[in-house]
Amino acid sequence: MIVSRRDTIKAAGAASAFALLGAGRAVGQAQKVITFGGSAPMSGKDSDTGLNVLQGYKVAVQYVNEQLGGVKIGDDTYKLDLQIFDDASDPQRATTLVQKQVDGGTDFFLGSFSSAIVLPAAAVTERAKKPTVQAGGGSDQIFTRHFRYMFGMYPRASRQLNSLVAMLQSMNGEVKTCSLVTTNDPYSKTQADGTVESLKAAGIEILDVFRLPPTATDVSGVVNDLRARTPDVLICTTHAEDSALITQQLIATGTNVKLLFLALGPETPSFRANLGKYAEGIVFIQYWEPSYKFSDPYFKSTENYYKYYKSVTDRKESYQTVAASVCITSYIKAMQDAKSVDPEKVRDALAALDYESAYGPVKFTSDGDGDPVLMGAAIGQIQKSGLEVVFPPKIQTAKLIIPNPSWSSR
Amino acid sequence: MERLIQSLVDGALQGSVLSLAAVGFSLIFGVLGVLNLSHGVLVILGAYLALAARRAFGLDPLVALPGVALVCFVVGYVYQRFLISPAIRRSNLLSSLLVTYGVALVVQNAFALIFSPDNQSVRPDYANAYFRAAGVTVNLLQIVALAASVALIGLLAFVLHRLPLGRTIRATAEQGLAARLCGVDIDGIYAVTFGLAAAFAGAAGVLIGMLFPFAPSSHDNWTIYGFVVVVLGGAGSASGALVGGLLLGIISTLTSAFIGPAYPNAMVFLVLVLMLLVRPNGLLGNAFGGSR
Fold this sequence. Notes:
The complex is a heterodimer. The longest helix of chain A has 25 residues. Chain A is of the alpha/beta class. The N and C termini of chain A lie far apart (97 Å). In chain A, 55% of the residues are buried. Chain A is 42% helix and 20% strand.
């Protein structure tokens, strides 16, 4: 076969082009990626709040990749990748999904929503020695098993309502009696148990503690008892669906209390929209408010975070969304502090974190839950359809309204 | 005493809605022999249709109820004729379990996509009116729901026992082959029966949407309640569903009042197991079981 000079030039040209393209691809492949794995309830009974958590994760990843162009850790720049799958509010499905990702080599995990899911998933990541940072589980059981790799953005459940009890105590004897409604799930039950202890210590009488099954469809019996022995304050450590059911049945039977506290529900816009004018005066845990003024090493400030959040999503913000976003940036801060993406070093850096974020101060206890003083909840109240902070006084945006008007006069 | 009367009243009011929600499940199981695992989805479909009618046209849920029932009838008819029936024909009755379970999962996710997974409610303002008499508090909407449930279940009983269509349905249920030999369009009757069941489920869904918060995942509860009502009351009859539903409601409220609010479900399922052991055909028996 005769090879002409033209053929040789063509072949050389093709080879050069191929080499250049290949080199280009190799440069593309050099872009390093940090993958965050995990699951979230995108369907099922916890999806209402689960989607808030997921949205927070998504917004932070998008911000880091698009606004910051990735993150520099040591000498390398990394892009972030989110691999969160739908666990359908099912703990069993969540553990299967997380185990699959552990087996696939994922090193860093983000938590699902609800302690019933976070708890079993934590056992999987703990066994694999992979860190998890989460904004969806507060049960004491998550933080009292000496897990080393689990970090939560909230104080453990039994400490979460300390500020509520402090608020009730500060009312100069206006609140003398409380009743509690709780569901038999790891988060709600421990939150109620801790609150009972705090109320006793504060000298507030507890009339009744009602325990509901995890899937309650009727609470008429509880409401009847509340009418017979009406407390000044009704504290419901329940999830959004149960909170809505209890409130509806209180309204439908004209059962009035001076103050109604719901641990979960009022922070979601759909809850407030469904109740309309009857949502006024309801008190709830307020971990975060867009008006807070915190600085942040990545989002710059709470204000800037909120501005960006609103520019990229229509889903209304809640404290879970910003806490979830800060799970991502806390990981980045820990990686930068450790100058490494080695899971063990990142774990140690997470344990040592102590910084201010768009969500507020971030500092974990030695058990991995949020510091009860620095990361403790404020108390919010729905007033004129908006969310106001009513306790503690130093960050108060409005005064607590008590007693609430009766349902029929709203 | 007041506590007992209040619990009985609450149980009866709650049970009437459970009866209406379950009567379709009972009818399908009694006539077609199909355990419809997507029954709860038809109930929730009713609630979502009422929500859509309210959002789009500002319609009161009770005004929308006949329209919702009609739409659900069509959905049920088409669902049976073109999905469940071919599945059973190509395999056996058991395949309907898989098909209905699969449909429930698909529709649940479709609801989440269309309406979001958030909790919803179609509760109008008048739903919160109540009165007190002799120490017993009664919500007016529950009275309306009771009246609507009894009226609709009565209508179904009338159709089944007094109209030619009802006689054909009962004949088909008792002896399908004999009915076919007499010229009855069995496939058509099955589809109409399924459509009727879906219409009743949809109507119940409207009332449920007014009484309770609902989300795409709520359908599970209503399928389970349908099953419990059938076991307690017996399959295939309107009266069986009514008795089963009332029993379920009263057992729940009495347990909540006198044992504790954590135990209604446990007690209901305990009674369910006892009933399956002692009287597997339910209190009123299978309306069509004797001649099968």
